[in-house]
C-alpha cells in the first residue's frame, strides 16, 4: 500500500478518492471504494434530497463522504443539512465559493474538501479553511475549466505550500496517473471517469460501452448538455463529454438550442435514462482512452495501487542508474 499524508489524515489505506459524480456516484460505489481502502464520495450533485438520502442508506455504516455543486446549494440548503446529519467523513464542494458552508461542515465534524480549477479558487478554498484541496485539470470528465492537471497541481503546491493537503484530479485512471500525481507534489488522487465505468456506478451500460469504444481524442468540452437540462452553470465551467451526435448538432448554436431545449427536455431525460449514447451527454473525460473494461471499484483501487508501486520502483531504479 502507498502511505501518504492523505491516507493518514483520512485514516484510509490507499491515497485514492472516488469523485462525487452527479447521477453516477451512489452509495454502493462510495461504500465499495471505502471498503477497498480509498474514500468514496457520494455524488450529491445538484442537491436532490431524495437521491442523497437513498445514497447514504445504500452506503450503510461504511465511512463515506458526499460532494455538492457549490453554486446550486443556495437553492437546496436542506440537502447539505441532510447530508451532514448522516455524519459523512468529508464534504466536497466544487464550482463556487465554499466559504458560506465551511462552518457548517466543520461543526458537523466532517473534513472540508474543495475542488478548484485555478489559482484564485485554490486561494479561496484555503481561506475558507479547506482541509483538502483537489486541483482539477481540464482533462477531467464532467464540469471543469481550462488548466491542465500537469501544471495546475505543482503550481497550486508552490503557491499554497505544504498545507492544506493536495489531491490531483483530471485524467487519472491508473497507476501511472497516481504515481505521476505523487511526483507532482500531490498527496493523493481523485478519480472520476475510471470509477464512472465501475461495476457499482449508476452509469448506464451503453454509456460505458461507448466510452470503452472511444479514445481520449473522442471527448470535448461543451455547454449543450447544460442547456438541454436547464442548468444555469456559471460561464467559467464547461462539461467534458463524448463527442457524439447530440454535441455535434447543438454545440456552437446556444441561442437556437436555448429556444428549443424546454420542449425537448422530457425526451432528453428519457434518452439519458435509456442509455442512448448519441442523443445525450455521455459524461466522461479524456481518461476514456484509458478505460478498457468495467471492473469492480475494488479491482480499480487494487490495480491502481499495484501499478503505481511498480511505476514508482521502475522510476526509482532509473534514477539510481
Ligand atoms: C460523470 C461525471 C460526473 C461528475 N459530476 C461531478 C459533480 O457532480 N460534482 C463535482 O464536484 N464533480 C463532478 N465531476 C468531476 C469530478 O469531481 C472530477 O473532477 C473528475 O471526474 C476528475 O477527472 P477524471 O474524470 O479524468 O477522473 C464529474 C465527473 C464525471 C466523469
CATH superfamily grouping of the domain at 5-202: Aldolase class I
**Which strand-content bin applies to the residues?**
15-25%
The value of Rg in angstroms is 18 Å
Q: How do the helices and strands follow one another from N- to C-terminus?
A: HEHEHEHEHEHEEHEHEHHEHEHHH
> How helical, in percent, are the residues?
40-55%
CATH class of the domain at 5-202: Alpha Beta
Average pLDDT confidence is 97
Could you tell me how far the N terminus lies from the C terminus, measured between alpha carbons in angstroms?
25 Å
Using the alpha-carbon principal axes, give the shape: globular
Q: Give me the CATH fold name of the domain at 5-202.
A: TIM Barrel
Architecture of the domain at 5-202, CATH level 2?
Alpha-Beta Barrel
The count of DSSP E runs of length 2 or more, i.e. the number of strands, is: 11
| Class per helix and strand makeup | alpha/beta
* Unreliable sequence segments: none
Amino acid at each position: 500500500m502507498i502511505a501518504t499524508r492523505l491516507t493518514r489524515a483520512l485514516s484510509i489505506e490507499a491515497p485514492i478518492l472516488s469523485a462525487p459524480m452527479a447521477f453516477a456516484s451512489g452509495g454502493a460505489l462510495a461504500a465499495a471504494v471505502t471498503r477497498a481502502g480509498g474514500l468514496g464520495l457520494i455524488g450529491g450533485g445538484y442537491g436532490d434530497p431524495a437521491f442523497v438520502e437513498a445514497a447514504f442508506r445504500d452506503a450503510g455504516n461504511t465511512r463515506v463522504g458526499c460532494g455538492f455543486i457549490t453554486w446550486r446549494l443556495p437553492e437546496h440548503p436542506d440537502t447539505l443539512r441532510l447530508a451532514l446529519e448522516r455524519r459523512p467523513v468529508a464534504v466536497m464542494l466544487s464550482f463556487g465559493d465554499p466559504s458560506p458552508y465551511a462552518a457548517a461542515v466543520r461543526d458537523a465534524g466532517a473534513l472540508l474538501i474543495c475542488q478548484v480549477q485555478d489559482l484564485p479558487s485554490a486561494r479561496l478554498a484555503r481561506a475558507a479553511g479547506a482541509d483538502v484541496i483537489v486541483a482539477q485539470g481540464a482533462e477531467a470528465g464532467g464540469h471543469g475549466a481550462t488548466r491542465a492537471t500537469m501544471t495546475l497541481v505543482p503550481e497550486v503546491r508552490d503557491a499554497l505550500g505544504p498545507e492544506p493537503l493536495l489531491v490531483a484530479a483530471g485524467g487519472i485512471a491508473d497507476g501511472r496517473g497516481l504515481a505521476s500525481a505523487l511526483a507532482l507534489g500531490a498527496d493523493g488522487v481523485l478519480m472520476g471517469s475510471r470509477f464512472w465505468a465501475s461495476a457499482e456506478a449508476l452509469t448506464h451500460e451503453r454509456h460505458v460501452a461507448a466510452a470503452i469504444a472511444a479514445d481520449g481524442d473522442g471527448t470535448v468540452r461543451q455547454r449543450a448538455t447544460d442547456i438541454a437540462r436547464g442548468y444555469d452553470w456559471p460561464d467559467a465551467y464547461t462539461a467534458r463529454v463524448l463527442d457524439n451526435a447530440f454535441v455535434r448538432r447543438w454545440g456552437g448554436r446556444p441561442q437556437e438550442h436555448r429556444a428549443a431545449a424546454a420542449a425537448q427536455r422530457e425526451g432528453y431525460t428519457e434518452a439519458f435514462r435509456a442509455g442512448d449514447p448519441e442523443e445525450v451527454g455521455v459524461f466522461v473525460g479524456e481518461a476514456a482512452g484509458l478505460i478498457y473494461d468495467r471492473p469492480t471499484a475494488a479491482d480499480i483501487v487494487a490495480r491502481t495501487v499495484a501499478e503505481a508501486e511498480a511505476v514508482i520502483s521502475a522510476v526509482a531504479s532509473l534514477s539510481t542508474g
